[in-house]
Amino acid sequence: MSNENKNIHEFDFNLICEYFSLIERQGPGSPEMTLKALSFIDNLTEQSLIVDLGCGTGGQTMTLAQHTTGKVVGLDLFPGFIDRFNQNVAALNLENRVNGMVGSMDDLPFSSESLDLIWSEGAIYNIGFERGINEWRNYLKSGGYIAVTEASWFTDERPAEINDFWNAAYPEIDTIPVKVSQLQKAGYVPVATFCLPESCWTTNFYEPQVAAQELFLKKYPDNPTARELIANERHEAELYSKYKDYYGYVFYIGKKL
Known about the structure:
This protein is α/β, with parallel strands linked by helices. It is built from nine helices and eight strands.
């Protein structure tokens, strides 16, 4: 998030895209956790339509596509991410049923009640958890599923430094029981909830950024915005190392009534 509680969206749009395109995942996660979440979802067929919102370059989307048989669409606001997404699709020979498109998660280009599964790892915060689960529900078929990861508190109380940091960066962060209650209130049956392990943050997200940061700074040695972006990411990694017992991403899976 930030060394001065600066939101990632305050940085240059193109610089953000270029930097995060250097790593396989644009947020914490793992293929194992994607598949664990997928294991709670029933009734997917070759006719199913799955949409991954805020898909990035498609790290988790490719895992979904390789373990389902329906059509998969990845949607992201960053054109550069979608270019990489579609390159990954082609490399895996999945063009016949997987494609990426540029679009906004607050204005989805899908028909009402047309989707069997809405997926979103580390991205629903862009419009907020409550808004996302309520608005996206309209696009799900009856009996369809939503599966998202959301930043959540693991404890009711935490040190002021991390509490203030996250409340400034994402005021909707809350405890797991509150999030489950919001899911139920929005019209879903809460199917499963589980915390992502530490390795999803360290091994799969922060550690790959070390080499990417060096490359990025070499390319933009005199760009103050680039330096601030890297400082921002390093500060976030330091905070996670210090306060990982108090927060993390949680998978929330719900079934539309």
